[in-house]
Write a structure and sequence with these properties.
The structure holds 2 protein chains of 2 kinds.
Chain A lengths: L13 H12 L21 H11 L7 H9 L5 H8 L7 H16 L2 E11 L5 E2 L17 H13 L4 E6 L8 H14 L2 E5 L5 H9 L4 E7 L3 H7 E3 L5 H5 L1 H7 L4 E6 L6 H18 L4 E5 L19 H14 L4 E4 L5 H7 L6 E3 L9 H6 L20 H10 L3 E3 L7
Parallel strand pairs in A: 1-3, 1-10, 1-11, 3-4, 4-5, 5-7, 7-8, 8-9, 9-10
Antiparallel strand pairs in A: 2-6
Helix pairs in contact in A: 2-12, 3-4, 4-13, 5-13, 6-7, 7-8
Chain B lengths: L6 E3 L2 E3 L3 E3 L9 H8 L3 E5 H4 L16 E5 L6 H13 L5 E4 L12 H13 L3 E6 L3 H10 L5 E2 L13 H10 L5 E3 L5 H10 L3 E4 L1 H4 L4 H21 L22
Parallel strand pairs in B: 3-4, 3-10, 4-5, 6-7, 7-8, 9-10
Antiparallel strand pairs in B: 1-2
Helix pairs in contact in B: 1-9, 3-4, 4-5, 7-9
Classes of the chains: A alpha/beta, B alpha/beta.
Chain lengths: 417, 257
């Protein structure tokens, strides 16, 4: 799969094209991905070492059926049990894992399922991440919403009944400054009970500022915890710095955020190791910051614009379900979010087992909620989408479907205090 | 049950000693749960009531039932106080269950912060029912802070594991002159009955019902168990011999005056 992502836009200048090719083919011209760039805060933390030392030693093939059965019989799930549940030996026990996961989910969350929607306010990006539709070399319509446009988008979403929003930007500090994002958070507080952020990682004081603007939850995807693989996928830009990204959730908590969300993009590297690392990232941070709320997401690679070739098959629904059941059994108290990249049937099934939060009324484009929600043609420009979604159900439809499945949809369980 | 056997909280009398939770199950079941539980008090998370559209939990609470808003989500006294005041603004009345957790994994209550919040809220005119870990010193401090009851946990919240802290709850019953309401961990009607036999003033349960196969029926089972336990307590339990047997002739029969 290595380097199968590269796509050349016909609109790149010869110089840009040459640089792109050099980045792709000559590792020596790339910066050290383990070295902090200027302005990046370095915090004292032992969490990374704790997580990665476990991941390094993990050999999923050494676990046997006996380990899996023992793990399912233990009342509390130890770290070794969790490793067994993530292993290939556990695959034949998926139904038993699902039964156990459902019990754990019920104990902590009952039959509730939380609904939210993401709002992309800009898609400018300064990074060359070879698998991403927003990458700086990809020829897409770039856009950054004005505050008036954001206000209109938020109003459309709030009018649909949604009470929780996740604000996203591409990763460009130059185009989407902290102040810009902060202003968007202040606007969001007018319309929503809960405001989350999924933006480029920032320093502790900047997270504090964004918290004061109304944001209370920070999502950062590590993409892959395999730093060597990470280096071959994130060729240019601040996102290339792996350790700064790793510590983002801890900086966010130190900045006063109530909760943080984690994930690897399963399929970029060995998904079992990435799932182990994601869960351990939660596990060790929760021990250090026991008051914080934590959640896990589980994206897999999906098709992106201009690059239909990307369709890694290594994480099928079965493996994804196994990962989510293992997460739930090991970390019964964490939220688990399943995005609209997954199909309607998968999401309908997984909310009965392990997931506690799903998106609805999703658009990953920029500035198109108003037209999509109202059904009217837009009279202004819209930015391209980051990826294609699979489950396009509206909030109303999702609400009805979840109720029909015997679940209790919840639009808000949150107070900003 | 004698009609004059009332639970008194904040000067208000209740005939039922079953406080019902409203979390983790569908709002449409609340009415049946309240009815079949015979509950006169129902708790609700303020953060759940703080909603704009669609279904609001407040619309599902039957009339005449006393609301007991809780401060779940609060991580310290200051946040609990703000949530309690918001509950009052939302029209939830003056009762508040102070619930402060600084641990997202086990959701154990923080007694120190709970004492601080109780003092502030009691002075502010709230009827404060603090959820606590059953510690005698903390319970005494809560009494002094102005609490109207203490609500010790039986075992970790949501666990349905029963009276894991039984010995310590007994100490609170013996030493604290406020109603002791067991809150969290009661998983079966028999456990509720046992706690009532000990002299607990009331039982609060949620997960035991929410995770039952038939919620209204389980509500009814709890109602019966709590009433049975209360009657047994009032009737005064018969003795239980812990060792040996009882001599039919007095051991001191040889004594002469």
């Amino acid at each position: 799969m290595e380097n199968s992502f590269f796509v050349d836009s016909g609109k790149l200048s010869p110089a840009a094209l040459e640089r792109k090719h050099r980045l792709e083919n000559d590792p020596s011209c790339r910066t050290n991905h383990m070295e902090y760039m200027e302005g990046m805060e370095m915090i004292e933390s032992d969490v990374c070492e704790k997580v990665m030392s476990q991941v390094k030693e993990y050999d999923s093939t050494k676990y046997t059926v006996r380990d899996v059965i023992a793990a399912l019989e233990h009342e509390t799930c130890t770290l070794e049990d969790f490793k067994a549940l993530l292993s290939p030996a556990a695959e034949p026990y998926l139904e038993r894992m699902a039964q156990r996961a459902r019990i754990e989910t019920g104990k902590h969350f009952g039959n509730t399922v939380y609904l939210f929607t993401p709002l992309y306010i800009a898609n400018y990006c300064e990074n060359y991440c070879v698998y991403c539709g927003f990458n700086c070399y990809n020829d897409i319509r770039r856009m950054k919403l004005s505050m008036e446009q954001i206000d209109r988008e938020m109003k459309s979403i709030a009018d649909s009944g949604m009470e929780e929003i996740l604000i996203l930007t591409g990763e460009s500090r130059a185009k989407s400054s902290i102040e810009y994002i902060g202003e968007a958070c202040q606007l969001a507080r007018k319309y929503f009970r809960m405001v989350g952020l999924e933006i480029y990682p920032v320093n502790t004081d900047e997270y504090r500022y964004l918290h004061e603007c109304g944001a209370d939850y920070v999502t950062v995807f590590q993409e892959t915890y395999d730093a060597d693989k990470y280096e071959t996928l994130h060729l240019l830009g601040h996102k290339r710095v792996w350790p700064y990204r790793f510590d983002a959730q801890e900086r966010a908590l130190r900045g006063g955020m109530r909760g943080v969300a984690f994930s690897a993009l399963l399929g970029l590297s060995d998904f079992r190791k990435d799932a182990l690392a994601s869960a351990l990232h939660v596990y060790y941070l929760q021990r250090k910051y026991p008051h914080a709320e934590m959640s896990l997401s589980c994206p897999r690679l999906r098709p992106i614009i201009n690059n239909d070739k990307i369709n890694p098959l290594d994480v099928h629904e079965t493996q994804l379900c196994q990962v989510l059941c293992a997460y739930r059994i090991f970390l019964p108290f964490v939220g688990i979010t399943v995005s609209s990249r997954e199909s309607e049937s998968f999401r309908n099934g997984i909310v009965k087992i392990a997931a506690t939060k799903i998106s609805a009324g999703v658009s990953t484009g920029i500035g198109d909620h108003e037209s999509k929600y109202s059904g009217k043609e837009s009279d202004s420009a819209e930015g391209d989408e980051q990826f294609e979604i699979d489950d396009a159900r509206s909030l109303d439809k999702m609400y009805q479907d979840m109720s029909r499945e015997g679940l209790q949809p919840v639009l808000n369980d949150y107070l900003y205090v | 049950m004698k009609n004059d056997d009332k639970l008194v909280l904040g000067g208000k009398e209740f005939s039922s000693r079953f406080i019902l939770g409203s979390g983790k199950y569908s709002l449409s079941l609340i009415e049946a749960a309240v009815r079949d539980a015979g509950a006169e008090i129902i708790t609700l998370a303020v953060r759940r009531a703080n909603t704009k559209e669609h279904e609001n939990i407040l619309d599902y609470i039957p009339e005449g039932v006393t609301l007991l808003p809780n401060t779940s989500g609060a991580r310290n006294a200051d946040e609990a106080v703000r949530i309690a005041r918001l509950a009052r603004e939302l029209g939830c009345g003056n009762f508040v269950k102070v619930e402060i957790m600084r641990d997202s994994k086990y959701l154990l209550p923080d007694n120190n912060e709970t004492i601080k919040a109780t003092e502030i809220l009691a002075k502010d005119g709230f009827v404060v029912l603090p959820y606590m870990y059953p510690d005698l010193y903390a319970a005494r401090d809560l009494v002094n802070a102005g609490a109207s009851a203490v609500m010790p946990l039986a075992s970790p919240i949501g666990s349905n594991k029963g009276l894991a802290t039984k010995e310590f709850i007994q100490i609170l019953i013996d030493e604290i002159e406020l109603p002791v309401i067991v809150d969290a961990g009661i998983g079966r009607p028999s456990q509720a009955c046992e706690a009532m036999e000990m002299g607990v003033a009331a039982i609060m349960a949620n997960t035991a019902l929410a995770t039952a196969g038939n919620l209204p029926l389980m509500a009814s089972a709890f109602k019966s168990a709590i009433e049975a336990g209360r009657m047994a307590y009032l009737a005064k339990l018969g003795r239980v011999l812990t060792r040996g047997a009882s001599a039919s002739d007095p051991l001191t029969g040889f004594l002469r005056n």
